[in-house]
Amino acid sequence: MTPLLELRGLGVRYKGAVAPALEGVDLDLAAGERLAIIGESGSGKSTLARAVAELLPQTVIQQGTVAWPGLDQKARNGRDIGFVFQDPASSLDPVMPVGDQVAEVAHANLDMDWRAARRLAVELLDRVRLPEPALLAQAYPHQLSGGQKQRVAIAAAIVARPRLLIADEATSALDTIVQAEIMALISALVAEDGMALLFVSHDIALAANLADRVAVFRHGRLVEQAATAELVSQPRTDYSRALLAAHLGLHA
Amino acid sequence: MSTLLQVEGLSKRYRRGNQEVAALDGVSLSIAPGETLALVGPSGSGKSTVARILLRLVEPDAGRISFNGEALLGLRGAALRAIRANLQMVFQDPMAAFNPRATVAGLIDDPLRIHGIVGRAERPRAIATLLERVGLATELAGRRVHEISGGQRQRVAIARALATRPALIVLDEAVSALDVLVRADILSLLAELQRDEGVAYLFISHDLGAVRAIAHRIAIMDGGRIVEQGEAATVIAAPASATGRALVAATPELPVFKETVS
Ligand SMILES: Nc1ncnc2c1ncn2[C@@H]1O[C@H](COP(=O)(O)OP(=O)(O)OP(=O)(O)O)[C@@H](O)[C@H]1O
Ligand SMILES: Nc1ncnc2c1ncn2[C@@H]1O[C@H](COP(=O)(O)OP(=O)(O)OP(=O)(O)O)[C@@H](O)[C@H]1O
Ligand SMILES: [Mg+2]
Ligand SMILES: [Mg+2]
């Protein structure tokens, strides 16, 4: 089957950096597949996510290819790719009500008039479990809690029903209850729309519960990729074993 | 037992357009020197509002706070600055809290300079030591905050909070973006500082695994109130409140795969 996304020999070096942030990455993602990216801080996870969405600074030196065999044309941000950034507050416009920020994505990508887009935005804010969504839609980002901002960013990323959702630590500031609800919502979108998922997370348990496949990064290299069950029960590298062992569960 | 921080009857309402949000409704808590109190609760329950009030970034509508025996809410000017060296915070959103043009070294230098912690000549050494303590390579010192990864940024925020050797550090989701290995290192660094220097922590987190590893006591918030308080291990093992039970039940565990894949 043709993959949706195909990375070949992907390498990224930031301007002035001594070591590359990514090196020789080969990775495929099928339509409707859920792939988790895990690995230590600084291993290149966010760099990979940004390279896929062509959101790296102009000054980087990039090698290899990012191809979209599953699309007729180049992937467009917003419509084909929804992106939830690691730092949600920085992706929100501080002077625009949050409902309008979600509506804008729908208006621009779904050929919807503003009224319909605003209505859809409120529906999405409700689906990410924000309280009183119609009122909250009128709030500005600084009037929301950290987890509420993160949910607005998720709503904006999924409102246009993209082919690929890139979620970079998208639930890291959410309490476990809302986190579980968001995971269920994302899973439903994958099942209903065949949306593919690139799920960057430091939480191995969360990643393992959601993903079909897990890719482990270290020092800019892909050190292991396997079906989730295989990676969790039979990790092949010492590094994956160490990551699994360091998981702080509640029943340890 | 002596108390370092005593908070009584804290209330706060925010205006949002023509809506009133009751963010805090009579919150009381206390922290002893060298103790870790975890503050957990659903998103929007008021945790960061408590933190912002402690740091005097937001004024409460009602309530009293005593820190080190002083009435915190009455302090102004120099007296407030003096307290700030002793009461540091790691913000939930480090990117928004930092000047985007500042370098990593500059961010850590700020508290050292402002509070006169070490002389000018020793500051580069002090910065290098702090970076090393949080596991960051010194080559990051010259980078700007948008030129480092999310987890690296969280650790810069922690290094900055440690710089003044405060008596209390408020950590608002300070380890939430850290992978398990780095998080384990940071948690043991925090525990070590507590043992050696007697620093206390208000540890705000949704991560009950981390809470269980570091906190002595837990306070669970919901809807601006504290709904349950108790010893950390006890509360996590058998939460008495509905909120506590729901938070524990929703914590992801590693899935168990029955048959091994060959
Ligand atoms: N400046 C503000 N103006 C209006 N409402 C606000 C403001 N800041 C916070 N709120 C509201 O107050 C409530 C408590 O917010 P707070 O940031 O304390 O929550 P939190 O427990 O830290 O949540 P999270 O886990 O999502 O970070 C939320 O409903 C939030 O929307
Ligand atoms: N704009 C930049 N300029 C220079 N170096 C950068 C830049 N952005 C990131 N880096 C460096 O590239 C490496 C990879 O960063 P990246 O953000 O991809 O890591 P990550 O795996 O997402 O880490 P985390 O889990 O901490 O978010 C890090 O060492 C980081 O310091
Ligand atoms: Mg990252
Ligand atoms: Mg908060």
TrEMBL record, chain A:
PROSITE patterns: ABC_TRANSPORTER_1, ABC_TRANSPORTER_2. Transmembrane segments: none annotated. SUPFAM superfamilies: P-loop containing nucleoside triphosphate hydrolases. Pfam families: ABC_tran (PF00005). It comes from the Bacteria. Residues 7-244 form the ABC transporter domain. It is a peripheral membrane protein. The keyword Membrane applies. GO terms for molecular function: ATP binding. Keywords: ATP-binding, Cell membrane, Membrane, Nucleotide-binding, Transport. Belongs to the ABC transporter superfamily. This is ABC transporter ATP-binding protein.
Automatic annotation (TrEMBL), chain B:
PANTHER family: D,D-DIPEPTIDE TRANSPORT ATP-BINDING PROTEIN DDPF-RELATED (PTHR43776:SF7), TRANSPORT ATP-BINDING PROTEIN (PTHR43776). GO terms for molecular function: ATP binding. Belongs to the ABC transporter superfamily. This is ABC transporter ATP-binding protein. It comes from Aminobacter carboxidus. Residues 5-248 form the ABC transporter domain. Keywords: ATP-binding, Nucleotide-binding, Transport.
